[in-house]
Design a protein that fits this description.
The chain has 258 residues and is of the alpha/beta class. It is built from 10 helices and 7 strands. It has a single domain, classed as Vaccinia Virus protein VP39 (Rossmann fold).
């Protein structure tokens, strides 16, 4: 069954990681964070909301359609004064026009078919010269083979039907770029990035995370038996030792409101 983002048992599924410091530097390379008003749209468990707040933003709003995800995010980010959370939709952002200097849509757009509406709303709430960061996987990103760094490739090696499902919900790069331009944005950059996800001392730590389906929605498509067999398959490929440094491949579009 696909992950239910409104199920209270999943509220902490996307809170257990720390954002890669190189990811924050990449944002800084294209837009100063210090003193900015930032919206993290589709914030999930607040991992990147927290990172942007701690990087010096004046105020960061984490917004998600799931009240359960927001509860987990609020609990994990308790005590950070320049950060708040609000429920809302990317297709109808409950904020006035020109409210933000920087807007992040990380791992959001594969949940959305109406990219035109999504990007028009982003354009509306950004201030002039505001920057939009869209980060998601393309069908090509999904198809990369498994390796010691790219563990997701082993998911699809074991279960090719998962790759078909995963690619079907991902937007081609050309469509994303076209819809951004049509919404009024100028594309500053389109980047292929590797983001460090997590380090494991040995395969046992990775197995435990896999069996909990932690932070990877695609694993909710598998039965418990299939998930256990996937872990066995990956151990055969990787061995039981370590350390294991997991990375994820993404495409990022940096766009500016004109």
């Amino acid at each position: 069954m696909p992950i239910n983002f409104h199920d209270s048992t999943n509220k902490y599924s996307y809170t257990a990681r720390t954002a890669d410091s190189r990811w924050i530097q990449l944002i800084w390379d294209f837009s100063a964070i210090q003193g900015k008003a930032v919206l993290d749209l589709g914030c999930g468990g607040g991992i990147y909301t927290r990172a942007l707040a701690l990087a010096g933003a004046r105020q960061v709003t984490g917004m998600d359609f799931s009240a359960e995800m927001l509860q987990g995010a609020e609990a994990d980010c308790r005590g950070i004064s320049n950060l708040s959370f609000r429920q809302g939709s990317a297709l109808n952002i409950p904020q006035p026009a020109e409210s933000y200097d920087l807007l992040l849509q990380r791992a959001l757009i594969h949940h959305i078919s109406e990219l035109d509406v999504c990007f028009r709303e982003a354009w509306r709430v950004l201030r002039p010269r505001g920057r939009l960061f869209v980060q998601d996987r393309t069908p090509e990103d999904c198809a990369l083979p498994g390796s010691a760094g790219h563990l997701r490739g082993y998911f699809f090696e074991k279960y090719p039907l998962l790759l078909t499902q995963e690619q079907a919900r991902r937007h081609p790069a050309e469509r994303v770029a076209g819809e951004l331009t049509a919404a009024g944005f100028e594309i500053i950059a389109e980047l292929k990035i590797w983001e460090h996800r997590r380090s494991y001392r040995h395969f046992g730590e990775l197995r435990a995370e896999l069996l909990q389906r932690q932070g990877r929605s695609i694993l909710h498509e598998l039965t418990d038996v299939e998930l256990s067999e996937l872990a066995d398959h990956m151990e055969e490929r990787l061995g039981s030792g370590g350390p294991i440094e997991e990375q994820d491949r993404w495409t990022m579009w940096v766009a500016e409101k004109r």
